[in-house]
Design goal:
By secondary structure, this protein is of the alpha/beta class. The protein is built from 9 helices and 20 strands.
Length: 361
């Protein structure tokens, strides 16, 4: 099969022939239909986060099941599925207390003594966070995908696999926004737009979008923002404080920078919660004013929207098909696998929300 391979940081991906194994007892073989080009992959390409190389990147995807292992009970051949990087075992402490997105069990991967899922000319090709979806096929654990309605377009479904689940989940699951509360979202890329949409679905009374790109702020209004703040026009914290007369109940940082994480905390009203969603580079230290904690302000992380994806993703599909979740507008371009490096360059320049690779194109 054809796959996009990262062999060296800060170098273009190369399209190569890669071999994929047959499904083991708990594994599913999927024909990839669509894969989103996500900023998280870019962190590994640029070396902000480490990856074992060579590796097939990609993690935001949807496809059709081709084969299943003997113990698989979650899907059957022909099912349309959305994949999820937060594969779960189902019986560790995190899974049993309803926090499957925190599961770190090695059971969802093949062991070192087993044949690797991906290979090339007899050598191991590393799999990226349980998925490797920049490839024509994926071989994954059965608890890394969920079957969804077949009337759901798979290019839109792919976005649910990471960015949408991360953004909407941060609002509904992690921070538990309630009707009427105020929200600020810093960064209006794919995840930030999903936060804004999730806040609208949750019934937030005021949703403030913060960015430095006017076109993204205009798009944020379409996703449910009631107010926009252009950080180029002055201190965004001061602007949010002025709009809300004292700060927001919930702030969401969807970029992954030290200063924006600190801004999210400083935007809070007393009793408010700041949620850091963006992937801040390893080793970065965040500085906060200790006095602010006396007002019961909190800052916390949100990993993949604290999801329970076998439940959450089918519900997000229903939200889309009923018109509540906006996915059509999030796709900037549909491209071929061969165009992947150009899509990452556009992503670095902040020009687009999402490019989606279509493997049938």
């Amino acid at each position: 099969m054809k796959a996009a391979v990262l062999r060296e940081v800060r170098k273009p991906l190369t399209i190569e022939d890669v071999q994929i194994a047959k499904p083991g007892p708990n594994e599913v073989l999927i024909r990839t239909v669509a894969a989103g080009v996500c900023h998280s992959d870019l962190h590994f390409i640029e070396g902000s986060y480490p990856a074992q190389m060579p590796v097939v990147l990609g993690h935001e995807s949807a496809g059709i099941v081709e084969q299943v292992g003997s113990e698989v009970r979650t899907c059957v051949p022909g099912d349309h599925v959305i994949t999820c990087l937060s594969a779960f075992c189902g019986h560790c402490e995190h899974c049993l207390t309803g926090h499957m997105s925190r599961c770190q069990s090695p059971e969802t991967k093949r062991q070192a003594s087993e044949q690797p899922r991906l290979s090339q000319n007899g050598g191991t090709m590393n799999q990226f966070i349980n998925l490797s979806s920049f490839a024509e096929q994926m071989l994954i654990h059965q608890h890394a995908c969920v079957a969804v309605r077949k009337d759901m377009p798979l290019d839109r479904a792919a976005l649910i696999g990471c960015g949408v689940t991360t953004g909407v989940g941060a609002v509904i699951n992690t921070s538990q926004v309630r009707p009427g509360e105020t929200v600020a979202v810093i960064g209006c890329g794919g995840v930030g737009l999903a936060c804004i949409n999730g806040a609208a679905i949750a019934g937030a009374g005021r949703i403030i979008a913060v960015d430095v790109v006017g076109s993204k702020l205009n798009l944020a209004k379409h996703f449910g923002a009631t107010d926009v703040v252009n950080a180029k026009d002055g201190d965004p914290v001061a602007q949010v404080m002025e709009l809300t007369k004292g700060g927001v109940h919930h702030a969401f940082e969807a970029i992954g920078l030290k200063n924006t994480a600190e801004q999210a905390f400083r935007m809070l009203a007393r009793g408010g919660t700041a949620n850091v969603i963006g992937m801040i580079p390893l080793g970065t230290k965040i500085e906060l004013d200790g006095f602010a904690f006396l007002g019961e302000r909190r800052i916390q992380g949100s990993a993949m929207g604290s999801n329970r994806f076998p439940v959450d993703m089918p519900r997000l599909v229903d939200f889309y098909l009923s018109g509540k979740l906006k996915l059509d507008e999030m796709i900037s371009r549909r491209i071929k696998l061969a165009d992947i490096n150009g899509a990452f360059e556009e992503l670095k320049r902040g020009e687009i929300a999402r490019s989606v690779i279509m493997f049938d194109a």
